[in-house]
Amino acid sequence: MAKGKDVRVTVILQCTSCVRNGVNKASTGISRYITQKNRHNTPNRLELRKFCPYCHKHTIHGEIKK
């Protein structure tokens, strides 16, 4: 029997400070991480502190739509 929806889904985390301030002129790109979350335990959007190589510091990375 097949399940309707998977409990564990793949999400993309994107740096919020790079998006808000624009990326530094010297570097190109936005920091993104791919991870998984359990839909039952975390129904809201996921936010984690991760290292951003473009900002050169730890910043909040928020879940984005695919």
From TrEMBL:
Cellular component annotations (GO), alphabetically ordered: chloroplast; ribonucleoprotein complex; ribosome
Swiss-Prot/TrEMBL keywords: Chloroplast, Plastid, Ribonucleoprotein, Ribosomal protein
Gene3D superfamilies named in the record: Ribosomal protein L33
Tagged with keyword Endoplasmic reticulum: no
PROSITE patterns: RIBOSOMAL_L33
Superkingdom, natural source: Eukaryota
Annotated GO biological process: translation
InterPro entries per UniProt: Ribosomal_bL33, Ribosomal_bL33_CS, Ribosomal_bL33_sf, Ribosomal_zn-bd
First-listed, main subcellular location of the protein, grouped into a coarse class: plastid
Pfam families in UniProt: Ribosomal_L33 (PF00471)
Entry GO MF terms: structural constituent of ribosome
Subcellular location(s) per record: Plastid, Chloroplast
PANTHER family named among the record's database cross-references: 50S RIBOSOMAL PROTEIN L33, CHLOROPLASTIC, LARGE RIBOSOMAL SUBUNIT PROTEIN BL33C
Family per record: Belongs to the bacterial ribosomal protein bL33 family.
Protein name: Large ribosomal subunit protein bL33c
